Amino acid sequence: MSRTPHDVPREPLRTARGLRRRPAAAGLALALAVGLGAAVFTARETADAATWETVIDSSSLQSYQSLEKEWNYLYPWGSDHNGSARMYGSTTDHNHVYLSEGNLILKATRITWDEGRSTAKPNLPIRYHSGAVHAKEKIVVSDQFPNYEVKGDFQAPSAPGTWPAFWLTGADSWPPESDILEFKGDNRNWFNTFRTSSDVSSTIVPVNSPGSWHTYRIWMTKVSATDVEIHYYLDGVWKAKHRAGFVGKPLWLIVNLQMEGSSGSSGPNAETLYRARNLYVGRSRA
Questions:
Q1: Are 215 and 170 contained in the same domain?
Q2: What is the pTM of this model?
Q3: Of 47, 63, 84, which marks where a domain is finished?
Q4: Assuming Cys at both sites, which of 126, 170, 188, 243 could form a disulfide with 115, CB separation 3.0 to 4.6 Å?
Q5: 60 and 9: one domain?
Q6: In this model, does residue 36 exceed pLDDT 50?
Q7: What is the per-residue pLDDT across 173-195, written as a single tens digit (0 to 9) for each?
Q8: Catalytic residue among 11, 45, 70, 182
């Protein structure tokens, strides 16, 4: 679905000077930006001669029918990952993945029985049932789709033992990975870009009251035949730029509430809720 592109704020001017294809029409905006210490470009200016498309928007959270049109339940690879929560959810099971007034809610509950260990490393004992969804359409930066915007509003748990995430991960291999939201048991969000398991850029940002609504966003743009630049934002404020060789590599978009693992143990006994709204994916078509 095509639409008129909205404003795409970029990083502060000191790094924006290196951007290519800056049109003359942006001169006034840049002159103003010098005084403000930041540059603001519209999507039309940064992706001129391209068509902007909406891939996913907030309408996907209006009903289970619309949710299931755009999203699959669980992780792309199944129910288990690297924490102590096993994901549950389906077209007939909305105990841990459900909708309320345009919000997606993932709920983790502690179990009291032995359900074995996670099938994914580090194979932790399963202590929780929780929820995850992933977008059906993969994100692939290419000559055809050189720019992507991915964002959402979240109320994220941050108590010890809670591990919510909103992230991109390689569909064919790992890495690549880009973590747009990741809390590991405290009030710091981890903006991460994994090039390899040992080559990682992490920008760690304190968040005032993660359990209140905040907007987490990336703008990912192709800058060479192999590389993208990923610009990370919190509540509309630019926080970081990471560069990685993600061109041509399909990425899954995942929202999940994992528990324990990197967020510490033991996790909470009470149920844990992770809320999302205004989930959005858009891209330019060259």
A1: yes
A2: 0.85
A3: 47
A4: 126
A5: no
A6: no
A7: 999 999 999 999 999 999 999 99
A8: 182
